[in-house]
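for the recovery benchmark. tokens below, seq after
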């Protein structure tokens, strides 16, 4: 069951990443300064980070009483990794830092919302099935 959930999650995560990338590409072609030059690295970073967080969280689905611990562990890992990523990009890039920060937090909200939605949808199905 866990493998099936992971494949489904990976498929949906890839789909949302393609949609976000297409949107970013479209806005970048408009020569719009809203999109930072490092957007592709940021999208890849969030793809991998969301995948890692989901793998940690899904381990808690094996035993429902441990789910909240594994979910909070994934959040505790995600936060410092994001802070380190922002510091590295801000120190290495000197152009349009406001655009990077806006892009970063928009992607953070999208990917985090996606992960939470996907986890809750699967948990709801498990709780209905178990009674």
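predicted aa per position
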């Amino acid at each position: 069951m866990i493998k099936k959930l992971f494949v489904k999650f990976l498929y949906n995560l890839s789909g949302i990443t393609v949609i976000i990338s297409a949107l970013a590409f479209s806005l970048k072609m408009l020569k719009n300064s809203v999109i930072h030059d490092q957007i592709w690295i940021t999208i890849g970073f969030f793809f991998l980070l969301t995948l890692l967080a989901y793998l940690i969280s899904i381990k808690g689905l094996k035993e429902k009483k441990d789910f909240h611990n594994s979910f909070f562990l994934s959040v505790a890992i995600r936060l410092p990794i994001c802070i380190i990523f922002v510091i590295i990009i801000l120190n290495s890039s000197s152009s349009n830092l406001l655009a990077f920060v806006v892009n970063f937090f928009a992607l953070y909200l999208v990917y985090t919302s996606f992960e939470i939605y996907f986890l809750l949808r699967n948990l709801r199905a498990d709780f209905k099935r178990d009674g």
